[in-house]
User: Fold this.
Amino acid sequence: MSSQSPRVKDTSAPIRVGVVGLGKMGLLHAAILNSLPESRIVAVAESSALPREALARFNPAIKMYPRVEAMLEDCELDAVVIATPVADHVPSATSCIRSRKPFLIEKPLAVSAAQASDLVRAVQADPLPNMVGFMMRFVDSFEKGKEIVASGCLGRLQRASGTIYVSQLFRRGRGWRYDRQVAGGGVLLSQGSHLIDLLTWYFGPVARVNADVLSVYSPEIEDFAHVMLEFRSGLRAWIDSSWSVRFRRTLETTIDILGDNGSLIINDDTVSLFLDQPAAGWSVGQMVWRASDLYRGVPIDVGGPPYTRQAQAFIGALLSQTIPESDVRQAFHVQQIIDAAYRSSSKAGMPQEVTA
Assistant:
């Protein structure tokens, strides 16, 4: 592989971006990146003719290709966004690395850690800006939670827990998301990976897990997942994830942390901190921050401000030629944790080591 740095245009001209996949997430990323002044969508690779033709009519300036390889070979690009079904993430990212194109890839990284291992080795051997779409890191409340945990004000951490629920599936699902060969897994890999990513962001890497997953509506994948995590630091946490619970119209995520000096509860809308003693600049007693207190505006809101902030972070990495925290290697660790959880569940909850 070439050691030459990927070329990104100077800041006087927009970054030229290609999008792979025109599903919901591909269209969302395209809309945001085409609206920010620093970037423009110039090409799309999509195997289905119908969405290609529809977008071509809407914006004839965007070049259309049936395959990512054709797009990379023919079109001058500075970066690529990959928003295909999960099984195609690694092949598309590998093509980008061969062409020396920085990429943002949707989560989860792959159908399994084994599928992604060569990709991880490639980005380690020949680094270029890359990012995986764990956009919940850019939610105001979870960013605030990270700041509080990092301050050390809670003292020695005793335990943590997290839940992530939505009312999505109450009958057999249709489409690739419910096909294990294409999706890699069910609710744990799909939405639970967001929560695991947040917890590893807060607390560091995980050493071992034990888990139980349950299929109720889906014959090939899980609809419920309960996972115990033991971090390398010694902290223990549990998470519960389901897309088949009632009365959750939108995705609801909560993290509950207990320390020697107090507690911290974070959800999508609120951060609540209670301290027994003042520490790290925080006062004694209860402090509450609501979404309205934490809100920061964005120049374009499509799907929610966190997606725009994620795009801005990716653009910033391209311009500075740096690699964001939520990169392929971090996403690979999340993948390893989930693989270990599936192994544990298949062995009646026997603890499983997470490969270092």
The chain has two domains: 15-135+313-324, 136-299+333-353. The first helix runs from residue 24 to 35. The chain has a mean pLDDT of 95. The longest strand covers residues 157-165.
